């Protein structure tokens, strides 16, 4: 399987994350992608290619320009305002307030942010742009006839909505890739999100559409980030009714239980008749992940890859989460090897 990768991901190198009332070193750090690419090379998974540059048009097919303008200019405006630290929002348009973008950058951060853990930094935009190009290049490979490709995206994307960032995500790579395929001949695309966390951004983007089926297996939002979306009763709206499936699971969920959810997801994907499958590949379902609560072991990721291969569809893997940094390469590549070897 070909991997699309760029060292530009290192431009996303925040110093701070607001966690447990402290500013800590971010869980989402450059070494994550470096462990994955090292494992790919060590195992000889296949060619590693640089992304092509598709420009802003396919990004704007998902994200409005006022949002990308904000991401691109936020750091400069934050510094101009005289702030010393990394850009962290502190105020939100909460219930019964007015949903209008403020002029001041401090307020504007809250307008565009889902949550406060994700610091905006000097070259965040450049890394986010490159990560979207990685996903687009992977999508293009499928368009060209490849049966599978791995987009080693970083920063990840599935928490980013059309016009909000957060959860370490800025641009929704999986959504951008799916839309690219739809814009170039695909009629229906399924997105299967197996990251520990609910893919709230992806769900929100496609919630009222019938050309994308979105399925997520995740920690119950009553207990886990992103807390405010991902319940079982969310099934889509309008034309999208029935095209969202959420499978929230409780703390301590084992692979045996998780795999039943995966089987249910794959059965729905088979019924849907998609032209391609995008897998939002997070491996924070791992038992030793520092910010998650499922109990998958490294060998379970091999089985997961085998199960995904049995769907027998052109498949784009887009990297999402996984914060047990030492094991992220083994776990992510196990999925890909399981897929290839099945
Ligand atoms: Zn996650």
UniProtKB/TrEMBL annotation:
GO terms for molecular function: histone deacetylase activity; hydrolase activity; metal ion binding. CDD domains: HDAC_classII_APAH (cd10001). The keyword Transmembrane does not apply. InterPro entries: HDACs, His_deacetylse_dom, His_deacetylse_dom_sf, Ureohydrolase_dom_sf. One of its GO terms (biological process) is epigenetic regulation of gene expression. Residues 28-335 form the Histone deacetylase domain. Its cofactor is Zn(2+). Keywords: Hydrolase, Metal-binding, Zinc. The keyword Cell inner membrane does not apply. Belongs to the histone deacetylase family. This is Acetoin utilization deacetylase AcuC-like enzyme. It comes from Primorskyibacter sedentarius.
